[in-house]
What we know:
CATH architecture: 2-Layer Sandwich
Keywords: Endonuclease, Hydrolase, Metal-binding, Nuclease
Strand order of the largest sheet: 3-2-1-4-5
CATH class: Alpha Beta
Shape: globular
Strand content: 5-15%
Radius of gyration: 17 Å
Number of helices: 9
Helix content: 40-55%
CATH topology: Nucleotidyltransferase, domain 5
Largest sheet: 5 strands, mixed
GO molecular function: metal ion binding; nucleic acid binding; RNA-DNA hybrid ribonuclease activity
Distance between the termini: 10 Å
Catalytic activity: Endonucleolytic cleavage to 5'-phosphomonoester
CATH superfamily: Ribonuclease H-like superfamily/Ribonuclease H
Pfam families: RNase_H
Enzyme class: hydrolase
Structural class: alpha/beta
Amino acid sequence: MAKALSIVNRQVATHPYRTRSAPGALESSLAVTPTNRQAVDSATSVDARLGLREADVEDESKWLVLYTDGACTFNGDPDARAGVGVWFGEDDKRNICERCPGKQTNNRAELVALIRALETADDVVLPILLKTDSAYCVRCVREWSKEWARNNWRKRDRTIVRNHRLIRYLLELLNFRHLLGQRVRLQWVKAHKGTAGNEAADTLSRVGALLEAKREPDWNWLRLELEKCWPDYYAQGGKDVSA
Length: 243
């Protein structure tokens, strides 16, 4: 499975900063087609797949525990600066401290942190426990995405879901792990309660907000590239297609 996970890097992360789609591509990207109908179905069942309603992990030593966080100074203002932090462990070279690409908001930074955690842990075979203090992110995955997917990524008032490109790519990363038989659990933790991992991720995200601005990736392109891996994987009978 470790080699199969490298598909994420080979077909997706090799182009992490492709420019965003042209504004006119928005409506077409929201259209329900046979391809993204599969994504709609997966979003509907993602809650059960991830076991988000299960009890906390009792023995975390058997899991890769990752703390993620997003920070934003002057959130909502034109001068806002957002950063992303992911903590793998003390002095771990995989720790992430980056500026949030694109629009600078706290919620976007929180979503990007989860995305970067999954993209970076591409060679991990252990089950992954993602710990975030963002109730927004947990509810996006656990609750809201189901209805949004059924409604073509529009809210009840028919307005387009904010951050839908990020959310859909995050769901695709999670479903890809499920396809490979890897457990991933998303767990909400209280912020600023002295938990070492949460505090470390918070520090990384705050420092990341001070770094230079980054060009926003084309989230739709990344998601569609990841979707392309599914037919290849099934064609090989679920075997490693990267060998």
